Amino acid sequence: MVLADELAKQQRSISVAEFFEKNKHLLGFDSPTRGVITTIKEAVDNALDACEEAQVLPDIFISIKKVSNEIFRIIVEDNGPGIVPAQVPFVFGKLLYGSRFHQIRQTRGQQGIGISAAVLYAQLTSGVPTVVISRTGPRESAHRFGIQIRIETNEPDIISQGPFEWDRIHGTRVQIEFKSTMSAKKKLLEYLRYTSVVNPHARFRVELDDESFTFERVSQEVIACPVAILPHPHGIEFGQLKRMASSGDLNLVDFLVESFSRVGKKSAQEMCERSGLKGSLKVKGLSSDDLKKLLAAMQDVAVPAPPATQCLSPIGEELIRRGLEKEFPMDFVAARTRQPSVFSGHSFMVEAAIGYGGKLPVEGNAILLRFANRVPLMYQQGACAITEAVNGINWKSYNIPQQGGFPTGPVLILVHVASTNVPFTSESKDAIASIPEIEKEITLALQDLGRDLKLFVSRRDKSKVAEDRARAVCAIIPEIAAKVSEIVEKPLVDTSPIEGKLMHKLIAKKWVHEGKVTIELFNYTGHDGEISLYDISADNATDAHPKPDFVSEMDGQFTKVWKVNVAPQTTWRVSYAGKGRGLLEIRGIEDNKMMVVDLDV
Amino acid sequence: MSKEELEKKSMTALLSIASAWYDQMKSGEIPSISLPTRTKYNIEFDDSSEVWKYGDKESLRTAASAKSATHLLKMAYVIGFIKQQLIENRSSTLREMYYISEGWKRAKFGAQDESNFLIEDLEILSEVPREGFHLHPEENGASIYGPMRIREETRRGMKTIHCQDDVGQAGYTIPNNVENIEFVDHDAKFVIAIETGGMYDRLIENGFDEEHNAILVHLKGQPARSTRRMLNKISATWDLPVLVFTDGDPWSYRIYASVAYGAIKSAHMSELLATPKSQFLGLQPRDIRDYNLPSDKLTEKDVEALRSELTDPRFATDYWKKEINLQLEMNLKSEQQAFAARGLDFVTKKYLPARLSEMGII
């Protein structure tokens, strides 16, 4: 027997399910720890996509409970439109089954692998069928399924099926049990926090064993669901063109105009001319060689960019800011949404934000949040085009320290790439491939934000220097004067001329000495200082001289208000018995023309 | 300078700092003070005194920021404190002053380093050593052993002490204030200043002091001011050669440099503290090679320190360049006690006699 015959005996087709069983890492199931995050991520992505399609505000419940040693039960429940019973087995029990694969618009899930891969993983590790409950509306009853996948054929295996009494009017609930650990708890919460940042219209309730968390929504607006568009002539490959041509009954010109976006009669005719094919030919009859010529011509003819506004759904600057502020308290946040752009015929759009200060860690690298189509990218930061773009920016020119290319300090950077076809580096969708057009847009957005941040930091530093100087001049120099006068045994030297010379401002000083609070106003400006002095503290100041013009009390805190006119180069003073502290404010004069110094702080 | 003269000088100098600030503030100016920059890039060799001193680079400290103002305020409090000490004829340690500052509110010291640094500033400004402020260091001086007689003014009256006959096995302890010592007479040919206690004890035990008429001084690592002042005075009074014997690593060379040329930290006191005539005895990098001593590899920090010494003006001689480059090449360092590998007598019978005759001492 010939060797080829020998080999032929062993050659047979491989089912997709079998392939993925052997290549779990391709789908993000390389470790039990990661399996949890991938499963929740896939389920949440589907839930958000479904809610968007149904135009409802997503309310998503996530629960992870340990059922026995090593086996965890994961539940994800949404208030989406539900899935009709006939489709449920296919959605969850067949790999590569989905509604969005053939559509050209921004969606979170695409290929229809994610959730069924989790079902497969569960069946391989725990053997427990996945339970799905879904209801499509108040008039329909809910259905409950127990589902597995037939690995050899990649077809659903329905273990159990039947109507179910469910309190939700519409929605879907998935319950998956598999072998895992909770060591990725921090990462999981991080994933949900980041998801909530870019989906400010969604609410997430999470139960992890005995702990519960809620990520509240900050926007009540349902986001517009992106509308599918026709393929763009620059973004098409041979296989797809062949498929489209074989199913059409049109002549070449009409086919080009009607099957592709932004192709008009004129461009269609130009494509025909360049490919040397007659516009009146039926597309069905074109040979592979003809199609190759046509494809080349389609790439060559200039066609406007695809209509991005309907197929993409950017978050928007305002909502990015609100989403970030809700999860990360910061001193400064700015966001940019760039104009749509194109790479190889695919529409994309870059959004970015920079946050600074607040509770961000002062030491170490900046925090980078990466998103693709509103989904956080949690792994392989180093391999991602976003990281590459961040590293390529000269952050030092925005006064942000940089170490090994990466910015450091209390900085948060968010980058969202929205596209009809996000170019991931692999099926596990962890990193965006390095596409020059995308990197350029990210760079431009971040540079723009860097300038804003630089302005903020320099303004803040400037006012810090001014405050620091005021403290030195108004609080410390008088003490130096007192000590030095004592040493040289001369009368106390008056330091107010130094103050006046340096400050050119209206200065309020407050201090406590032997149970007496004194507030002094010095007007070093050249103008009348007609101001209101607000003194809020626990002292009631009944013995104040002069008397306040207005006093009010709230929870033991007295607000005393004096309306004063301090002439230029003069001083006004009030004292009363008390302990001081509290808050002192001057109103009625521009901020940069006055300074408040509490000498006791 | 007598004790009274020193006190008068320090009082005048400190009061003039305060007066200058008073006048500045009186004329509506922010008080300020200017000090020499205290880095190795601002030390210069002074030909007349043969020691390294601070150069011309100065930095101006103006009370225009909270940090600088607080620094001046602390300085004012310290001046006030020293003034009081001088008037009441009391003294305290730096550590005591640090604790006293607890009651100075805004002017209180955050750490002892800060008070030490401030006192050094005042020494520079007033040209008076801290003894003149009635402040003495915490660390006690090291010990000395050998054929010499001194007279010390103690709280129990004047005492004459011979540093072999009248002291225990550990030697005579150098007091904090060397100014109170009178040098009576000696029968010595040279002085060896030794880094480690182990080697100091070894030389005493082996009777090296008697055999060679040597004065042995224990440096105790980086020597205290009083130890350096003692060496300076022995060298100046009796004109004896001073030889420094340390480990063979970059940190030990710095010990030699501070004995010979003064430390960067106290360059303003170099004339009183440094002994420019002192010579480096060992352990030299070439000894590691020639005697095949047990050794360790240089660490990254060691290499960095050696490289930094190549740019230090105090090591800018052919001898040091050659030795340091040799050490970098060998990538080795040894401790002085490594000689024990060749027997306990090796260092006193072989190494030191050979090295001392090479240097022309014996």
Question: What this model shows, in words?
Answer:
The complex is a heterodimer of chains A (601) and B (362). In chain A, β7 (203-208) and β8 form a beta hairpin. The mean pLDDT of chain A is 84. In chain A, α8 (252-259) crosses α9 and α9 packs across α10 (288-300). Chain A has 601 residues and is of the alpha+beta class. The longest helix of chain A is centred in the C-terminal third of the chain and has 53 residues, at 436-488. In chain A, strands 5-4-3-6-2-1-7-8 form an 8-stranded mixed beta sheet. In chain A, strands 9, 10, 11, 12, 13 and 16 form a 6-stranded mixed beta sheet that branches. A 4-stranded mixed beta sheet of chain A has the order 22-18-17-24, covered by helices on one side. Chain A contains 15 helices and 24 strands. Chain A has 4 domains: 16-215, 2-Layer Sandwich (Heat Shock Protein 90), CATH 3.30.565; 233-300, Helicase, Ruva Protein, domain 3 (Orthogonal Bundle); 313-457, Ribosomal Protein S5, domain 2, CATH 3.30.230; 504-598, Immunoglobulin-like, CATH 2.60.40.290. The relative contact order of chain A is 0.08. Helices cover 33% and strands 27% of the residues of chain A. Helices cover 43% and strands 19% of the residues of chain B. Chain B is built from 13 helices and 17 strands. Chain B has 2 domains: 3-136, Winged helix-like DNA-binding domain superfamily/Winged helix DNA-binding domain (Arc Repressor Mutant, subunit A); 143-358, Dna Topoisomerase Vi A Subunit, Chain: A, domain 2. The two termini of chain B are 36 Å apart. The model of chain B has no long low-confidence stretch (mean pLDDT 89). In chain B, the strands form 6 sheets. A 6-stranded mixed beta sheet of chain B has the order 10-7-13-12-14-15. Chain A binds chain B through residues 465, 468-469, 471-473, 476-477, 479-481, 483-488, 490, 493, 495, 497-498, 501-502, and chain B through 15, 18-19, 21-22, 25-26, 28-31, 63-70, 72-73, 76-77, 79-80, 83, 106-107.
